[in-house]
Amino acid sequence: MMEIQKDNKFSRRKLLGGAATAAVVLVQTASGKAFQAGMTHKEIEDTTKIQGVLPGTLGTRSDFEKPVKAPSPTSSRTPLQDLYGTITPSDLHYERHHGGVPAIDPSKYELVIHGMVDKPMVFTLADLKRFPSVSRIAFLECSGNYRGANDGKIRPQDICGLTSQSEWTGVALSTLFREVGVSSKATWFLAEGGDAAVMTRSVPMTKGWKDAIIAYAQNGEAVRPEQGYPARLFLPGWEGNTSVKWIRRIEVSDQPYMTREETSKYTESVGPAKIRQFSFTMDTRSIITYPSYPASVEKGWIEIRGIAWSGRGKIVRVEVSTNAGKSWQLAALQDPVLDKSITAFRYLWNWDGEPTEIMSRAIDETGYVQPFLKQLLEARGGNMGYHFNPVTAWYLQKDGKVLFKAT
Ligand SMILES: Nc1nc2c(c(=O)[nH]1)N[C@H]1C(S)=C(S)[C@@H](COP(=O)(O)O)O[C@H]1N2
Ligand SMILES: [Mo]
């Protein structure tokens, strides 16, 4: 920050600071050769002295901004610490696929609905788009969304970057159920993907009737290939793996199918000799995204910022502690606070510069309180696995460096 002197003069050099060298790069990459030739450093710095870039066919991200996903062979994590608000830019939506991203020609795409129905039917993409559409903003989260690190050098992206939020648009599955005439005796349906993993999950009909969407759009454009182009199942608030991408078949039944994904995977121990199966709902969670590793902070006013979400409903409260959990303060929630959606929160805090731990915990409309890691490990008999939503703490060192701390 810079103060303007009383005579209203201030140093341009100081105001622009380190941006000067980077500005050269911007001009060269974005606005082409015409503006580079013969221009002095000073002229390039002054954006009022040169013609800017002309309108194009696609927008670009500023060359100064480089948010990126963190990919591994199985997933790619959203850079939560680099984002603002609650909608994840589509190219930064996390990815999780078991057999890679298939290339599906939308003109050949078909969705079959059969089983306990009056009229088995095949829907093309155009057919799906002819039905009345629905849109809703909701988060998606992988049930395996937790990481820790003993050295504290781990970002929100690494800890829980397998969550993202979009506005999803498509046709309500209930509309298609009516179209095919689902039997009143049906209790489950199988959702099958058209990828190399042929991912399959059994879903209770109640969810299908309630709020399931066959989504063909995401944040105003066609669903991205990584998210299931040309259409995916989207089940608000439920573990990500049930939102089957590249959906090609729905079979209606009166029992679950016990697929590989719901027997060998996606079950978790709840005690020493008990396993939980069909644990669909994502629990309430929050994380402070600023300040967080690898940021550094200075003593004085800090706006603590973060996100909270719950698969059970709306977030009603986020509490922040700035003294390692000894006492808790209410954070302000940013509107809109939507059902099964990421909600932004903030808490203004004056740091005295002494080392401390800051943390947040979310409470949803069912009264569920986000647990500490210790509580989760006790309840799960020491097993780490799916559905880990612990309170995340950040340790502020005296030098202002911020490190992850397990709770
Ligand atoms: N067909 C298919 N659907 C799938 C998967 C898959 O591998 N194949 N992965 C699932 C898992 S484990 C998750 S967490 C979400 C991830 O959705 P995203 O990649 O759009 O974030 O998709 C689910 N749907
Ligand atoms: Mo997942």
Model description:
This protein has 407 residues and is α+β, with helices and mostly antiparallel strands. It is 14% helix and 30% strand. The protein has nine helices and 24 strands. The strands form six sheets. Strands 5-4-13-8-9 form a five-stranded mixed beta sheet. Strands 6, 7, 10, 11 and 12 form a five-stranded antiparallel beta sheet that branches. The chain has a five-stranded antiparallel beta sheet with strand order 19-18-22-23-24, with no helix packed on it. A hairpin with a 5-residue loop joins β14 and β15 (275-276). It is globular and about 75 Å long. Mean pLDDT is 91; it is low at 8-34. Molybdenum atom binds at residues 96, 142-144, 240-241. The ligand Nc1nc2c(c(=O)[nH]1)N[C@H]1C(S)=C(S)[C@@H](COP(=O)(O)O)O[C@H]1N2 binds at residues 93-98, 140, 142, 193, 195, 197, 199, 226-227, 240-241, 243-246.
Which helices and strands appear, and what pairs or packs with what?
Blueprint: H1 12-16, H2 19-30, H3 41-45, E1 70-71, E2 75-77, E3 95-96, E4 110-115, E5 121-124, H4 125-130, E6 134-141, H5 156-160, E7 163-172, H6 173-180, E8 188-193, E9 200-204, H7 205-210, E10 213-218, E11 221-222, E12 232-234, E13 247-253, H8 260-263, E14 268-269, E15 275-276, E16 285-290, E17 300-309, E18 315-321, E19 329-330, E20 332-333, E21 343-351, E22 356-364, H9 373-379, E23 393-396, E24 402-405
Parallel strand pairs: 4-13
Antiparallel strand pairs: 1-2, 2-3, 4-5, 6-7, 7-10, 8-9, 8-13, 10-11, 10-12, 14-15, 16-17, 17-21, 18-19, 18-22, 20-21, 22-23, 23-24
Bound molecules: ligand MTE and molybdenum atom (MO).
